[in-house]
Specification:
The complex is a heterodimer.
Chain A lengths: L13 H6 L2 H23 L7 H29 L22 H29 L13 H34 L8 H20 L16 H4 L3 H29 L12 H32 L11 H35 L6 H14 L18 H10 L1 H15 L8 H24 L1 H7 L3 H31 L5 H27 L14 H17 L1 H13 L63
Helix pairs in contact in A: 2-3, 3-6, 3-8, 4-5, 4-6, 4-18, 5-6, 5-8, 5-9, 5-10, 5-16, 6-8, 8-9, 9-10, 9-11, 10-13, 10-14, 10-16, 11-13, 14-16, 14-17, 16-17, 17-18
Chain B lengths: L1 H30 L7 H33 L1 H10 L9 H30 L11 E8 L2 E6 L4 E3 L2 E4 L3 E8 L4 E5 L4 E5 L5 E6 L4 E2 L7 E4 L11 E7 L1 H15 L2
Parallel strand pairs in B: 1-5, 4-11
Antiparallel strand pairs in B: 1-2, 2-3, 5-8, 6-7, 6-10, 9-11, 10-11
The chains are: A mainly alpha, B alpha+beta.
Bound molecules: protoporphyrin IX containing FE and copper (II) ion (CU).
Chain lengths: 626, 254
């Protein structure tokens, strides 16, 4: 964390030194906030310090302290009272540990946070697979440990990885550049959106210290009203991440709406930008539903309101949750579609096929995703009148989703394909999501769902879409934009090794899970009957190989970030705007107004030589500001 | 020029071959489905098999298209090097055919097996329908009670007569559970404060002892005891069932 900043040292007081380590200040203020809130509540309500009321009040002040401490004080409070905006945003590496309004810094902050969370939640999955190797094992201390682990794994993955990885990471880093803008529309809002994320993730991670929570990522009451105190931290964490998602959704929409370079029409927007637009609409419109549902759960817990228990309606929660929850899964996957379709033309050296089908498909998916939520509730005893309509919308949403494949296959067919690492991950995505999507057709069928609901068939299905889909796309994006973001190249051989290792281990782990479900293995169980042991042993063994595959890119990319060969500004001979500026880009992105071209016109484009010549082509600028 | 016709032909052939193989694979899977012990379950298995058969060619189509695209990349490169290329931005025939086929397939899923099965399994309006036997199922953390109101019997194992239509009235005393018998392929949630119904027609004599899929298993996360929230199931010939009822009555008193 070297700090080469030269501003604001002059006064040299201790206070200044302290405020120049904002992360430290944020931690101290957060801790103070927590103690204050929790102590006062404990005293007033005469509860213990770690009772749920105290934790809620403490967390609220901790979040406030955290945000103010990291720079919210200088960024919002001081200017509000007429002062100047004077946040020391740092330079070099230290920027990443500060309140920083550069969208590229924020993008990398998001990306690294999401990847760290992925590793943590993945490690928890490893523990779960140890537990599931044999019936009768008990690797978690105390009863309920497995339920807590499933809950933590799922919640971290959905809210801390899948929802923020691509949108926060590449949405921030790439979208403004792709549309020729200097930054996001609201840079301060952007910076603060990011700083909510680590706090939300920490709330989840702290839950086990308060007894964890056992209700899964879905937190259905009445169970979520009666389980451990950790449940309130899960609620608070989701709310925190939810606020961040809504804020960044608004920001992305405003950015694309207002900041497109002159001459860049909606009909020319890169498909990745389109995917961010539809995702943001869903974020802004539907995240509030889960907020509402969870606030009511919290009130049932601490205020005895019984929205969902006693005379209340437990199923009302499920409606609220899935009105959010189903758009949410498209929030997770649409960015993946965006990345894959953005990359295919580059590595096939061929015009994107069916641009209009893609954009139309995105918009149709966005609209239709609002109409399918009851397919999560077929077996809850909802009115029979709800079954067929929701089955219809659910099956039909695969039509616009299929347009992604229409475009992908149309682009690849006859293309000059180069199997670089990002391309391999895109192709892996197309294979995995095909399985995830087709098995969705099965689950959409009411009758089949009577059997499959809450079995490992479902677990396999959603891992195929989220992990095999969204995470593969995320990784494709990481390798693709790595040279742009770091200014350096990764090692192509190691990248390919990573792909094949992960792709094979991934399918070996999750394909058999479908069959485990067919054979009668239900989900969220620490234990099962002995006849299910062989298949679980296989799945666990494969899962460990899969888990190990994450070590390779972690080491490789960290090394490459520091020591990799210097990258040219456009190693992929790509046509979108981020490749017209240096790697890494200067703070203001464009020194001169960007020239808008047809981003997908690869007619007559030169073949992509790859492995690339090891030295940047002469005359291509290399230096950025890092 | 050769590649222009070679690769589509190759792809077509590969598609046919792979689809035949995939269908054979589907038959293999279907042959290994776990034992099914209810007529509704048979219906569900049939639909499962049908969907597998219909989606298999879709799967192989995409896989073949990907594989052939990769395999023909060298040819594409030669073509491009040889002269000017103009890559298609769309192809009306291909795109609209794609759209029509996917629309028709999905409409078929809904209005073919989808609606048919809903009608066969849950039937019309929400009121429960008359059946041969009603069993009240009460779930609690963590166990099951089965009450036979017409017979005056209460039991912790689920004992049923074969070849009868049985309605389960399912509820819960605390949190949400789910009443699932894998061998019947049917489940319904046990929700506190309401009674949900499913109807099952038993088709074979079976018991948990012979086949572990013939068990009641809680399928909705309900707390610490969730994985072990099971109950034994016995489907008996009618006379054996009557004998069981008599014996239970004797044990439980009037
Ligand atoms: C590293 C590889 C992974 C392995 C081995 C793994 C394994 C598992 C297992 C064993 C379960 C619990 C099944 C059960 O008992 O119900 C589970 C649940 C889940 N996983 Fe993963 N997983 C992995 C990665 C991911 C990723 C990348 C995501 C999403 C980004 C994800 C999202 C979820 C969710 C949402 C649940 C459901 C949690 C719940 O039931 O509430 N997983 N995973
Ligand atoms: Cu239960």
């Amino acid at each position: 964390m070297s700090d080469r900043s030269d501003i604001s040292v002059a006064r040299g007081s201790r206070w200044m030194a302290f405020s120049r380590a904002p992360l430290l200040r944020a931690v101290v203020w957060a801790a103070a906030g927590f103690l204050l809130g929790a102590e006062v509540t404990a005293a007033l309500v005469s509860d213990t310090l770690l009772s749920q009321d105290a934790v809620i009040a403490g967390y609220a002040l901790a979040l406030l302290g955290w945000i103010l401490g990291i720079g919210g004080w200088e960024a919002f409070v001081v200017p509000w009272f007429g002062g100047e905006y004077r946040v020391d945003e740092g330079t070099g590496r230290s920027r990443y540990f500060r309140f920083n309004t550069d969208h590229k810094v924020v993008g990398i902050q998001y990306l690294v946070t999401a990847l760290a969370t992925l590793l943590i939640a993945g490690s928890i999955a490893m523990l779960m697979r140890i537990e599931l190797m044999k019936p009768g094992l008990n690797v978690f201390s105390g009863p309920g440990g497995y339920n807590q682990a499933v809950s933590l794994h799922g919640t971290l993955m959905i809210f801390g990885v899948a929802a923020v990885g691509i949108v926060g990471g590449f949405g921030n880093y790439v979208v403004p550049i792709m549309i020729g803008a200097e930054d996001m529309a609201y840079p301060r809002l952007n910076a603060v959106s990011y700083w909510f994320v680590p706090m939300g993730v920490l709330a989840f991670l702290a839950a086990p210290f308060l007894g964890g929570w056992e209700s899964g990522w879905t937190a259905y009451p009445p169970l979520s009203v009666t389980d451990g105190t950790g449940q309130v931290l899960a609620v608070l964490g989701v709310l925190t991440l939810g606020i961040s998602s809504v804020a960044s959704g608004i920001n992305l929409l405003a950015t694309v709406y207002h900041l497109r370079a002159p001459g860049l029409d909606w009909r020319q927007l890169p498909v990745f930008v389109w995917s961010m637009v539809v995702t943001s609409v869903l974020n802004v419109a539907f995240v509030p539903f889960v907020g509402t549902a969870l606030v009511l759960v919290a009130m049932d817990r601490v205020a005895g309101t019984h929205f969902f228990t006693k005379d209340g309606l437990p199923l009302l929660y499920q409606d609220l949750f899935w009105i959010f929850g189903h758009p949410e899964v498209y929030i997770l996957i649409l960015p993946g579609f965006g990345i894959v379709l953005e990359l295919l033309p580059v590595f096939a050296r061929k015009t994107l096929f069916g641009y209009k089908w893609v954009v139309g498909g995105f918009l149709a998916v966005m609209l239709m995703s609002m109409t399918v939520w009851d397919h999560h509730m077929y077996t809850t005893g909802i009115s029979n009148a709800r079954l067929v309509p929701f089955m219809t919308t659910t099956e039909m949403i695969s039509v616009p989703t299929g347009f992604v494949y229409l475009a992908a296959l149309g682009t690849l067919w006859g293309g000059r394909i180069r199997l670089t690492t990002p391309m391999l991950f895109c192709l892996g995505f197309l294979f995995n999501f095909l399985i995830g999507g087709l098995t969705g057709v099965f689950l959409a069928d009411v009758a089949l769902d009577f059997q499959m609901q809450d079995t490992f068939f479902v677990v396999a299905h959603f891992h195929y879409t989220i992990m095999g889909g969204m995470v593969f796309a995320l990784i494709a994006g990481i390798y693709y934009w790595f040279p742009k973001m770091s200014g350096r190249m990764y090692h192509e051989g190691l990248g390919r090794l990573h792909f094949w290792w992960m792709f094979i281990a991934y399918n070996a782990t999750f394909l058999p899970m479908f069959w485990a479900g067919v054979e009668g293995m239900n989900r969220r169980v620490a234990d099962y009957l002995p006849y299910l042991q062989p298949i679980n042993e296989w799945v666990s063994a494969a899962a460990f190989v899969l888990g190990a595959s994450f070590v390779l890119p972690a080491v490789h990319l960290t090394y490459a970030w520091v020591r990799g060969e210097e990258a040219s500004s456009n190693p992929w001979r790509s046509r979108t705007l981020e490749w017209t500026i240096p790697s890494p880009p200067p703070k203001e992105n464009f020194h001169e107004p960007p020239r808008i071209v047809d981003f997908y016109d690869y007619d007559g484009a030169e073949d992509l030589e790859w492995p690339a010549p090891s030295h940047p082509a002469p005359g291509v600028p290399v230096a950025g500001n890092d | 020029m050769r590649g222009r016709t070679l690769y589509p032909v190759l792809a077509g052939a590969a598609w046919v071959v792979l689809t035949v193989l995939a269908e054979a694979g589907v038959n293999g899977l279907v042959a290994h489905f776990p034992v099914v012990a209810s007529s509704q379950g048979q219906l569900i298995d049939d639909t499962f098999a049908l969907l597998l058969r219909v989606t298999a060619p879709v799967f192989t189509f995409v896989v073949v298209a990907l594989a052939v695209s990769i395999a023909s990349a060298g040819e594409a490169r030669r073509l491009a090097a040889a002269g000017e290329v103009r890559y298609a931005r769309d192809n009306r025939f291909f795109s609209w055919t794609w759209f029509a086929v996917s629309f028709i397939l999905n409409a078929y899923f809904v209005f073919g097996p989808g609606v048919h099965d809903v009608n066969a399994i849950v039937l019309g309006p929400d009121q429960p329908r008359p059946t041969d036997l009603v069993v009240q199922v009460e779930a609690h953390q963590w166990g099951w009670d089965f009450i036979y109101p017409s017979l005056g019997v209460k039991s912790q194992t689920l004992v049923l007569p074969v070849h009868r239509e049985i309605r389960f009235d399912v509820t819960s005393k605390d949190v949400i559970h789910s009443f699932w018998i894998p061998a019947f392929r049917m489940k319904i949630d046990a929700v506190p404060g309401r009674i949900n119904h499913i109807t099952v027609t038993t088709t074979r004599v079976i018991s948990t002892r012979d086949d572990p899929t013939a068990r009641v298993q809680c399928a909705e996360l309900c707390g610490i005891g969730h994985p072990n929230m099971r109950a034994a199931v016995q489907v008996l010939p009618p006379d054996a069932f009557d004998a069981w009822v008599t014996q239970q009555k004797a044990q439980q008193g009037p």
